[in-house]
Design a protein that fits this description.
The protein has 99 residues and is mainly α. The radius of gyration is 14 Å and the shape is elongated. The protein starts with 5 loop residues before the first helix and ends with a helix.
Length: 99
């Protein structure tokens, strides 16, 4: 987690929990992020909105990995680009969200 705002910590905590296959609740997300559960409503409005923000963040990271691979002249294999980016939690997150 490089962006240390409470909002980013909540988003990243939710992504980590989904990637681990854990139950996603306001309490588990807040505990992982080190903040109160009330901040989820403050920053996102609801758990559904937090999940949407997570999906959007992962989609951005996937686009960046793909763009980086294209700039380096590599053939565009998005999964390989993600693996090489070191962001393997993205793959686990995606696998859990589409399962």
């Amino acid at each position: 987690m490089t962006d240390r705002t409470a909002k980013a910590r909540l988003r990243d905590a939710a992504i980590e929990l989904v990637a681990e296959g854990a139950t996603l609740t306001a309490r588990t997300v807040a505990e992982r992020a080190g903040v109160t559960a009330g901040l989820i409503r403050h920053h996102f409005g609801s758990m559904a909105d937090l999940e949407r923000a997570c999906d959007e963040h992962i989609a951005r990271l996937v686009r960046v990995a793909k763009e980086d691979a294209v700039e380096e002249g590599a053939s565009v294999d998005v999964l390989q680009a993600i693996r090489e980016s070191g962001e393997t939690h993205m793959l686990r997150y995606l696998a859990r969200r589409v399962a």
